[in-house]
Amino acid sequence: MSMNPQQIIDILRKLQAIDDEIRDVRSTRNRMVSNLEKLEAVLETRDTQLNEMRNKLSEAETWHRKKSVELEEEREKLNKAKAKLNSVTRSKEYVAVNRELDNVRRNIQTREDEVEKLTLAIAEFRSTIEREDEKVRDLRVAANAEAESNRDRLGGMDARIEAVERRRNEVAEGIEKSILKRYRKVFDARDGTAVVGVVDEDACGGCNMVVQPRFVEAIMRGTSLVQCPFCSRFLYIDSRSDQDGQPELAA
Ligand SMILES: [Zn+2]
Questions:
Q1: Cα 227 to averaged position of ligand 1 atoms, centre (Å)
Q2: What pLDDT was estimated at residue 14?
Q3: If you measure from the C-alpha of residue 231 to the centroid of ligand 1, how many angstroms do you get, rounded to a whole number?
């Protein structure tokens, strides 16, 4: 496999373009997945909260039943005491039964207040739960729709990543392993950008340091594969970048 530096840098530029594409698609894909996961997590939290609320409601309802039974018992006591009052003859006993009646009436009043408060609280709580339940259901519908539409897009992205990776392997096969290794090393060390153009005639497009003229000349002539002395990125000169400021890649 013998190729000149110009051919090597051309291949490295293709690799860089492919790697950029892979990174873009992957990051879009990851964003979509993580948005869905966040939405799912929110739904799960709200579901848990809703269940807790339902448990509390059922506790309150149990308590309400207990208090209602107690109230009924007090009312029975009242009836019994009233009946007793009708049958007493001695005034001493009459006073005692009357006192008992007063006690029972007070108890009934207290119980009625309790039950009424509980009834109101339960009704309010129930409607809060209904509202929350509706919100969670709407959210669930939205999340499902999102997941549904994303499924197709995700599938498309996976297919695209696969195709691009195949293309990458083909391109990578056309170059020496040692150079590929150097590319990978710079790529990893320099945040995914291993190949950059020379900008402003003599500066590295990656780190912006001015590169010595002899390097620039070597790149222009295609006599050697040049890495920036400061950041190690592979350098190229794109003649077409003068026209629109944007480097274009040879297909
Ligand atoms: Zn540099």
A1: 8
A2: 96
A3: 4
Task: Identify the structural domains of the chain with CATH numbers, from first to last.
Answer: 18-173 (1.10.287.1490), 177-244 (no CATH)
pLDDT tens, residue by residue, 167-177: 999 999 999 99
- Between the CA of 167 and the centroid of ligand 1 the distance, in Å, is 27
Whole-model pTM: value is: 0.70
CA of 211 to the centre of ligand 1 (A): 8
Taking the centre of ligand 1 as the mean of its atom positions, its distance from the CA of residue 210, in whole angstroms, is 8
Distance from the alpha carbon of residue 195 to the mean position of ligand 1, in angstroms: 10
pLDDT digits (tens, 9 = 90+) for 181-209: 999 999 999 999 999 999 999 999 999 99
Ligand 1 centre to CA of 206 (Å) is: 5
Residues whose CB falls within 8 Å of the CB of residue 154, separated by 6 or more in sequence, listed in order: 29, 32, 33
Exposure b/e, 109-125, CB count within 10 A at least 16 = b: eebeebbeebeeeeeeb
How far away, in angstroms, is 6 Cα from ligand 1 center? 19
Return the percentage of the chain with pLDDT > 90, whole number: 83
β-sheet with 234-236: strand ranges across:
203-204, 195-199, 234-236
SS3 40: helix
